[in-house]
Amino acid sequence: MITKAIKNAFRIAKERNWDRTFWAFDIHATMIKPNYDAGNVPTEFYPHAIETLQLISNRKDVDMILWTCSHPHEIDQYIKIFEAEGITFKFVNENPDVPTQGGGYGCYDRKFYMNVVFEDKAGFDADEDWEKVLDLVKNTPEYLGN
Q: Which CATH superfamily includes the segment(s) 2-138?
């Protein structure tokens, strides 16, 4: 469940004295209801998604990454839609803040580093999970490590 992943990310950040975590968000069937109509960018958010994403955007202990297979011109449109709602993504389909380091834990050359992933194909249920995440985020104080 997504709330368990979030709690785990914050616990690990605190244990390791990290100042932030990285959360990746898919668009379709996760934040926005898909319409499966090529050339017509859907804009209908799931209930509780906007408020939750706004709260997460304002946290200094979370960097949001847009993780999408959308075409570049669609990504530009989505970024504008999100920004109009007060939702800010630091990166799109990458996390250059965590590069591969020699001898490190992982190789991030082809799979970027993230702590939490919001993806319908990975089990995120947009109809039910946004409200749970909203409650968790509202009741979890910001952790800034160091």
A: HAD superfamily/HAD-like (3.40.50.1000)
